[in-house]
């Protein structure tokens, strides 16, 4: 191990301890040359450079040097190519450098080989050429506007101005004279009608840079995407450059929905109502696409889908345009009247989403008509009708604003009230006019209406309305029943009794007195039987009487319009028939009276009188005729006797004459 | 194995059928009924106020009834009341029939209206309809309808010229008023029918008698015409045609009185009889002229001879006087 350490120590010693007999060091040289090319070609320029040599040994070193390489256009010569250099001393190798006028600016290197006694070394000479040149436009990069230009203001507003974006860039004069900027202007036709304007300096000092503000204006018509335009920077002799300006346009969209009343309010069953909402793209650059509406998946509302029709005619809202979104609500037959229903819709489109919530309260069919009718009835002259109508109207109105759950009863009572009040109006008018019978039909309608109200009434106000209506009806019914009761009691004939009992039965029915009604109906039926019997007999009697008179007339002599009994042989039959007819007619008249058909009784009684008169006339003319017959007969007989007597006398005188003559 | 499966399936079906609730109402049925009712817009609802009220009442009832109470039974009575073949619909048809001027249609309407009473009775069998006061209206409407028809037929009868038609109309009016339970009108029309019938029957008796005689005499007169060579037949024909004319005139008068179209036939007959009579009289006059001429000649001859004989007797007597 020790042996190894010793060997290593030796090695270190030999490496670290220099050979101090002879050696030198060389230091590189440098020089600078300025070539002035600012006004025409540059002239060649010369200078010197030194390479420093130091003898680091003790012995004299004989130093020789020569140029091993020189850059083009640069000539390098050594003025002291060899010399002796004592140990520990130093000396410079003097080098002449001539740079021709066309050498480029920059660092150029020439190589010098330096040789000593034993060895050689190389040194470099850095020739820094500085060229002074005229003004020069440095290369400009293309401009890319990083942030896109967003068209986010309404097109109509921006139509005149367009959208502008400013970009600043530097124009660099890397020449050594002042540079004049002649113009900066678009070159060619920029895309999409883009225009450029700049705010630039007119001059840029040597080796300086100035900022230029470029304003890029994009018309509203510019489509979405990347657009390019060329900008030419003309600096005259200093240079001309065309750079590309790249701008990205991005169209914004703005979705607007017209304001709408989300509550349809009260909607009558089966009466379609529509709500139109306008969906609008407000900016005017880009369509809103994928417009869709559907029932919300979560919390869609309790209204049935097929009650609400949604019409969205297009799935695209054109830029700056609008699309109507129509909701048509038609409560169908199964709707629970009075209930408030809701529908939630989810509207989605390329610009976002929205939720549309709609509500409506179902009301019965034609409730609007009912309200109008109640309003009219409120102004009725009848105090009770007016009062009830007012209460019902108020109930209807408060029900509608409160969204009551009892709408079914409100609607039912309102509608029925109109029927009730109309019927009562007519009934009261008839009763006041004495038409108690005519009023019954209306009272029947009124009773049904009140019963319907009572069935539907739920709250206090409705019960009050029912009570008021019932009291009103009962008051009129009491008048009716009193009238009919009195009529029945005072009736002396069947018809009056029947009518009185029938109407009384109806009145009792309406007053909810079924026992009395049944009894009255039974009495009416009994009356009908008696009435029919009497009427049947009376009618037959009248017809028989007429037939008898007709048959009697057949035997009479007709003289013009008059009929005369001229034939004594038909006297008996005619007399019998007339007496029969008079008797029957009188019986019929009495039966009509008893049955209560007073008009028929009167006409029949008159008929009986007429028949009596007719018969008396026939009889009298017959008697006169008979007397005439007798007188004629007597006259004829007298005439015959007289004629015979005269004839006899004549004959006797003739005979006497004959005798006288003969004698 | 298949049989066992079938039996099991059958048992399952039976079990499900037994477990299923008994015809409970549903929204679909309510919708159907309410919307069906609301669509009814018939002229008869305005014409007869009671039917309008009935329609309203049904609609209110259906709207306010909870869906669970609207069952197949509800559907049944709603159909009877306002279905396609229900009371309101039938009433409308009846009203249409009765709206025209054709009495035949009115008669048909009356017949159908009478039949409608059975539908009203059926409706009364449904508690829900009765409880909701729906059954009262159609009866009243029907009464008004019958009263209207009574008035219609009465007017027709009064304006009818043909008594048979008038009787028919009066009979229809009688039925209508009876159905309308109008006592006085029923009585009046009943009397009217009986009177007119009685008069008509009497006139028809006379007419038939006259017609029989007229026809017989007409035949005799035709015989006279056909045997114009026989003066006796001609003479009888003349008399028979005269009588036939008289009898036909009576018939014509009765037919005219009752507006019977057969009057025109009789009028033709009368013209024919007149013509026959004229012909026969002509022939008769020829015979009469011949007879009179013969008689005059005979009389002149006889009287001439008598005068000559008288003068001869006178001359004889005068001669005797002179001799004496």
Oligomer: heterodimer
Residues in β-strands, percent of chain B: under 5%
Unreliably modeled segments of chain A: 400-405
Number of helices of chain B: 13
Residue share in helix of chain A: 40-55%
Number of distinct beta strands of chain A: 29
Q: What value does the Rg of chain B take, in angstroms?
A: 42 Å
Shape of chain A: rod-shaped
Structural class given helices, strands, pairing of chain B? mainly alpha
Rounded mean pLDDT score of chain B: 88
Distance between the termini of chain A: 257 Å
- Percent helix range of chain B: over 70%
Q: Report on the biggest sheet of chain B.
A: none
Mean pLDDT of chain A comes to: 88
Largest interface: A-B, 44 and 40 residues
What radius of gyration of chain A results from the CA coordinates? 71 Å
Order of helices and strands of chain B: HHHHHHHHHHHHH
Q: What's the main sheet of chain A like? A: 5 strands, mixed
Which shape of chain B, going by the Cα principal axes? rod-shaped
Beginning-to-end CA distance, first to last residue of chain B: 169 Å
Summarize the structure in words.
The complex is a heterodimer of chains A (663) and B (324). Chain A has 663 residues and is α+β, with helices and mostly antiparallel strands. Chain A folds into five domains: 22-132, Sandwich (Immunoglobulin-like), CATH 2.60.40; 143-251, Immunoglobulin-like, CATH 2.60.40; 255-363, Sandwich (Immunoglobulin-like); 367-489, no CATH class; 544-638, no CATH class. Helices cover 42% and strands 30% of the residues of chain A. Chain A has a five-stranded mixed beta sheet, with no helix packed on it. The radius of gyration of chain A is 71 Å and the shape is rod-shaped. By secondary structure, chain B is mainly alpha-helical. Chain B is built from 13 helices and no strands. The radius of gyration of chain B is 42 Å and the shape is rod-shaped. The N and C termini of chain B lie far apart (169 Å). Residues 12-24 of chain B have low confidence and may be disordered. The chains are: A alpha+beta (663), B mainly alpha (324). The interface between A and B is large, with 44 and 40 residues.
